[in-house]
Write a structure and sequence with these properties.
Layout lengths: L1 H6 L1 H18 L5 H18 L3 H28 L12 E2 L2 H25 L5 H20 L4 H18 L3 H22 L3 E2 L2
Parallel strand pairs: 1-2
Helix pairs in contact: 2-3, 2-8, 3-4, 4-6, 5-6, 6-7, 7-8
């Protein structure tokens, strides 16, 4: 058991911080971006080492967007204190149908592009599935930075899909994490809905 834990300590640490990230996300605590930065950096190594290249690249993207997300939420909180600066970005809001369709279309296009690259230019063992998760994850994470409530629907689907995906790659701690993510995403959706405003 000790040898197993030592061998997988990076994955275990990434999982623990990843779960903390989602908890803070549900609470809309901007420190989630700092925790997410750390967790994502660990997962870059975990996924690259497991030849899940798209996810490795996506988590590198998460590292970068964590900086943007922290800045976005921090400046929004500052703007909240001024009477003239209030905007719908300060609280969760729902996209209307047409913008939502565009977001989904972009996710599908990204997934197809990433899947094609993985299939033809890498030795990825799961290029189509990896590309699908990567494409939708990129868009979903951007939606989080904007506090678009529908990002939770994206994550519910992504997290459920990832459980068997990572289990098949023998990333058991990560598979368990995404199962918990799935449950927490449902909770997050309910919590954010309580504070949702309509898009102007």
């Amino acid at each position: 058991m000790t040898d197993f834990l030592l061998k997988n300590w990076i994955e275990i640490f990434a999982v623990i911080t990843g779960l903390l990230y989602v908890y803070l996300q549900i609470k809309q605590n901007k420190t989630m971006w700092i925790v997410g930065f750390i967790s994502s950096a660990m997962f870059v190594y975990v996924f690259f080492n497991s030849q899940i290249y798209a996810q490795s690249i996506i988590y590198a993207y998460y590292v970068v967007i964590s900086v943007y997300g922290f800045w976005k939420w921090h400046t929004a909180n500052g703007a909240r204190r001024t009477a003239r600066s209030r905007s719908h970005h300060l609280s969760p809001f729902a996209l209307r149908l047409l913008p939502l369709i565009r977001v989904v279309a972009i996710s599908i296009i990204l997934s197809a592009i990433i899947g094609y690259i993985l299939t033809n230019f890498t030795d990825s063992t799961i290029p189509v599935f990896d590309g699908l998760v990567a494409g939708f994850s990129i868009v979903a994470t951007w939606m989080v930075t904007q506090k678009i409530i529908q990002h939770w629907y994206f994550w519910i689907g992504i997290n459920l899909f990832c459980v068997p995906l990572y289990f098949s790659q023998e990333l058991y701690f990560t598979a368990f994490m995404f199962l918990v993510y799935f449950i927490m995403s449902i909770i997050g959706l309910k919590e954010w809905k309580k504070m949702t405003t309509k898009q102007p």
